[in-house]
Amino acid sequence: MAPITSAITRVLVTGFGPFGGVPDNPSWGIASRLPSALPSNIELLVHPSYVPVSYHPTLDLVPTFHDQSPDIALHIGVAAGRKYFAVEQTSQKSGYEWVPGVDGEIFTKEEQQAAWGPLPEKYSTSLDLHATVARWKELTSGLSFSERGSGARAKPVDVRFSDELPDMLANFTTQGQSVTTQDDEVKWSDAVGTYLCGFIYYASMAEMGKRNTGEQRNVAFLHVPSLDTEEQIKVGVDVTVALIQALVEVKGST
């Protein structure tokens, strides 16, 4: 697939801040190290600070992201129980009343109804993630994942603030050590969860759909594993850059 070289593509990128068990969130570590531009006329609009792991501040921020009129929005979060990078297909508008954010607040059923009442229970991105992942695999084939060492070496996690509770509980022992192994380093997924990762994904797709003719939701969510060292974060930056390039190429070819 040939890279897009004519029009400028504006890609918004965000990362999350610390939460229980994750004092240095690698999603913000990656986002904050991205350049302002990439080859093939890609302009990166990196939000200048991390998104707090709290529902109400996040909901307030989402419209400001889209005030910049990005062609693609990419939100990044951590899934500490995984050893791979994954783009998520769908998110849902309900279920955020169970696990509080770092401020101790939930997003109640009544608030969910007030914010998104008439909208579908699930939103799926308008981006072709299957084609994107195929291209992403090509672009990352030369990267050295060995620099991650054991990869997503898990820290003890407070499950009250876990990013995706079913996934975390499945992938962790009671001592908080990862017991999962994965063959693929980059992949498609449909398990964004109902914590802040799913919340920002749904809110961002709803906001972009509201603003665009035909309700195009050119939004993606990237889950990254725990990355503990500067070398691992650098690998995460390279993987994310490759994903952005793949998203732009695939979008431009459709």
From TrEMBL:
GO cellular component, one term: cytosol
Keyword Cytoplasm in record: yes
Annotated InterPro entries: Peptidase_C15, Peptidase_C15-like, Peptidase_C15-like_sf
Signal peptide as annotated in the record: none
Protein's GO biological process: proteolysis
Family membership: Belongs to the peptidase C15 family.
Protein name: Peptidase C15, pyroglutamyl peptidase I-like protein
